[in-house]
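Hello Y.,

Per our agreement to keep a running log of every chain we model this quarter, I'm adding this entry. I've kept the format consistent with earlier entries: sequence first, then predicted structure.
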Amino acid sequence: MSQRSSCVPLVLLALCLHLISTVSQAEPSKKLRDLSDAEIGKITGAMPSDPAVVPKQPRKMLIFWRCEGYYHQSIPVVNQALEIMGKKTGAFEVTVVTDDYSVFTQESLRQFDVVCLNNTVRLKFNPAKTPEQCQALLDFVKSGKGLVGIHAAADNFYEWPDGMEMMGNKFTGHPWRSNGTWTIKIDKPNHPLTAAFQGKSFKISDEIYRTDPPVYSREKQLVLMSLDMSDPATAGVDDLKPTDQDTGISWIKPVGDGRLFYTGLGHNDPVLWNPLVLEHLLRGIQYAAGDLEVPNEK
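Predicted structure for the entry above:
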């Protein structure tokens, strides 16, 4: 055997090892856990039985849950809650649940009325590298469709400023940890999306994201509820900044002819069997879908 021939297996071996290394460095798709019967029972029992309004037409939802960073354990709980919500109320139908970026094309998104970003983290949307993907999502919303963001949906689009502006917040920390209990006040007590709370502040155990300007701004979105900083526990966490005095929890905004609804709740599992939160979420989804018409969007 020639010296050149003997090198071929070594070259092939090196190539195989390189490919294996490359694959191992890629972010693997998470395997979502199955919920227990007890968890499903809690969600179902707390779920509204009827839609806030009868949908104008059948509505289809895409749930996207890709994580390029921290993986929220509540992702499968949110997915299940939304599927149960759609079936029980008839307000919409969850038709696709995925973490595959290939769904973000003009043609693929046409089948949906609402895209829900469920605790997505650091999504790789980049106008220079993935222009079709960015344009597909932006055009989807601006054309009259809906975008719903849950909790970590504000921790995205660091390479796509238009996407971050659309969400209305940039993640910069969470002084209010998931093991604490915080008070939330209703900023818009007469708004259709906050009807479940009847204008009353409430306490909840969940992780709360900081909402820093200038991405977060009451000039650009209608804030429905926020942290109640008159509560000593809520105002007494460490490392607060002056801008933390206005920490938004849920908001809406028009995006072209479409609509965004975002809520910062959804880190802890029990949030998804809180009946008031579920009613708020249902109304937010129906607003995003274009069925629940509301005044004063911003």
